[in-house]
Amino acid sequence: MMRKKIVFSLLLSCTFSILGGGCSQKSKMEAQGSKEHSNLAIERETDNKMSDWNLTSSDAELYIGDLGVDQLYTSNQVRSLTTGSTKQALLPNGFPLIQAFPNPAIVPKQGSYVENVIDTAISYLGTPYVYGSNRLEPSSFDCSDFTRWVYLYALGMDLPWDAKNQAAYVDALSKRKYHDISKARRGDLLFFTSFRGNRAADYAGLTASQKPITHMGICLGNGKIIHSASKKTGGVRIDKIIEKNFHLQYRFILGGGILD
């Protein structure tokens, strides 16, 4: 009940900020914000922390991702739901699979809800990484808290609380899902297995059970991702996925759009 009240309050806040007055001044602020976001994005995507073996090889948070986070939030929750004699489809964590949609009161930016998502995501660049971060406020994120919060704050869409369950959501409900990273589009959710090294050979020959989904992010288009990977790599950051000796391209498992 507490979670529902907090989410409802968040949605009211989001809707009020979008529907409020001062449109002319707001447009100027958004234009200025977009320019600042662009400059910050260029700065952050040029560092090599995510591909620096001296750093990544000793970064425990990269290896574990958000594995086990769902257990922090579901141990005392109802893990199944039935309606009459018909069973509700369930996520891996036992919660009902319920499709979320953008709040109709929210106006699409540039005619697309994707841009609401991207603008919100970029506004959190540099937010610190914390494993199992508080899902009810945005002072810190792990990878799945980041993606969930972005969609919640930008569009009022309440997604599952960890990467494994968000992947199951996309797999079940996306009209456009894929296993080839080259098919990724702006605003898509992208899912990855655990970090094992920087080379393609580190991931060759693994079975499905050896490739659990433990990391995720949001596609920015042009081969870029915005995500929160670890403290050592700086929290929310932007990277180019297809880079020499860069592991994300070898770890990719699933992608899909949930706004189509």
From TrEMBL:
Keyword Glycosyltransferase found: no
Occurrences of domain NlpC/P60 (ranges): 111-259
InterPro entries (UniProt xref): NLP_P60_dom, Papain-like_cys_pep_sf, Peptidase_C40
Record-linked SUPFAM superfamilies: Cysteine proteinases
Key words of the record: Hydrolase, Protease, Signal, Thiol protease
Signal sequence interval, chain numbering: 1-20
Pfam families (UniProt xref): NLPC_P60
UniProt family annotation: Belongs to the peptidase C40 family.
Record's protein name: NlpC/P60 family protein
